[in-house]
Amino acid sequence: MQFGRTKIKTDVEYVDESNVLTVLESAMNDHISNYGDIEYLYSYFKGQQPVLQRKKEIRPEICNKIVENIANEIVSFKTGYLLGEPIQYVSRSDTDTSKEVGELNDIMELCSKACVDNDIAEWLYICGVGYRLVLPNDAAILGKAVPALSVGEKPDLGDDTPFTVHCLDPRGAFVVHYSGVGEKPVMGVKYVKKDDLTVVFSVWTGSEYFEIESDGINGTGRIVKHEKNTVGYIPVVEYVLNNARQGAFEIVLPLLDAINDTQSDRLDGVDQFIQSLMVLYNAEIDEDKAKNLRDAGLIILKSFGENKADIKVLNEQLNQTQTQTLIDDLYQKVLEIVGMPNRNGGTSTSDTGAAVIVRDGWSTAEARAKSDEANFKRSEREFLKIALSIIKRSGGLSLMLKDVDIKFTRHNYDNIQSKSQVLVSMLNNSHIHPALAFEHCGLFSDPQSAFNMSEAYYQEQMKKWEPVEVDSDENDDLQQTGQGASGSQEQSQEGV
């Protein structure tokens, strides 16, 4: 397999009815190459790894096949670390759109976008690419340019959302880019295979939708449906992990295979020690008799002449200490290359705080996550552009892309005491605006919303402590009453 996926390109800047079949045929050649690699990586992620096909020439009956699925561990950790908390849309500090942004987050929650995000991230870390499909509900209801997700399946329209979002399997979806400056997307493709081996392609450009049928993957295609693209954008959004479009564990595949082989050899060593070979000296015994005696756990030997009969066991075994050291070294190298922390901790017990974070690799994991976050955000903005367009068309929010920022949150409650102290210190500094304190303390996933809520709460509390205004007539009466009371008190004291 090749390392990294091929970016599918065409020299056609605008795809229409006259050239869509030609562009699709050319793009499929690159996609088929990517398909084989993605299928291999996905199978590897699930545990179908080369060690399962290992063979031994010596004592082939003892051949353990151990899969230590570190690839799954890598993907699971990185997905959870990047998207452990759902992506939040927040209002930019220079705009007063926090209410509408809150409504946008509600729409995304109803669409189960967080689940789709996790599926996309998982594909990213497996094979380096992932795809999101956005379908407007109004178009689905009208039957316009919205294909089935699979044969016989219709999109789930929902009741309260203007669109639905889906994660597409990269083995059956891709985006074609123009090879000119900027390499803009010119066509999004999703396809499914029918039982009769017919392949149905759903093809979108920025303005048109095509449904194309073909007799097999490499068969000649024919347009069976041609409609206007009611979305106005290519609804297939491509996400990439890096420029090489390479998965998280792809670069360490040889190391992962070496760990599997070493673990299998270790267990072989144990089995071979238990089932040690016996060597007979100066003994005449046929194979059947030897087998029967071995199964019974007893061997009787008879000496002949001067040569004394004897038996010895070959009990050489693999050095388990050395193999464990090798495995530990290989595993540590895997962690360093893929940017994962050593969650077992280091050998030092005196390190605390930031020293532990650096020593165990958490700072490297955070740096890698920030890089992944930047790439994810780039595609997320494309999705958000489509979503806002659909919402606006349905008479919903009037938000624009420039009004919304995309917020990732990781380990929100780590060092919460230190973060709280930073917040208090900044709030007590008269030269720093309180909104900046909320933004930079690291406590809140949506600093602007937290600031607005806190400000409203502060104003509400201050009203409770405002002095009560009293009319002048009532004030005079109170003063007279006070004087009367004082006089009565004095008289009482004099009486006493």
Q: What does this protein look like?
A:
The chain has 496 residues and is α+β, with helices and mostly antiparallel strands. The protein has 2 domains: 1-271 and 319-411, no CATH class; 277-314, no CATH class. The protein contains 14 helices and 13 strands. It has helices at residues 20-46, 70-83, 98-110, 113-127, 137-142, 253-274, 287-296, 320-338, 354-359, 362-393, 416-427, 434-440, 447-464, 472-495, and strands at 9-10, 88-91, 129-136, 163-168, 173-178, 185-193, 198-204, 208-215, 221-228, 236-240, 277-281, 310-314, 404-407. The strands form 4 sheets. It has a 6-stranded mixed beta sheet with strand order 1-5-6-7-8-9, with helices on one face. A 3-stranded antiparallel beta sheet has the order 4-3-10. Helix 11 runs antiparallel to helix 12 (434-440) and helix 12 (434-440) crosses helix 13. It is flat and about 115 Å long.
Provide the fold topology.
Elements: E1 9-10, H1 20-46, H2 70-83, E2 88-91, H3 98-110, H4 113-127, E3 129-136, H5 137-142, E4 163-168, E5 173-178, E6 185-193, E7 198-204, E8 208-215, E9 221-228, E10 236-240, H6 253-274, E11 277-281, H7 287-296, E12 310-314, H8 320-338, H9 354-359, H10 362-393, E13 404-407, H11 416-427, H12 434-440, H13 447-464, H14 472-495
Parallel strand pairs: 1-5
Antiparallel strand pairs: 2-13, 3-4, 3-10, 5-6, 6-7, 7-8, 8-9, 11-12
Helix pairs in contact: 2-4, 6-8, 11-12, 12-13
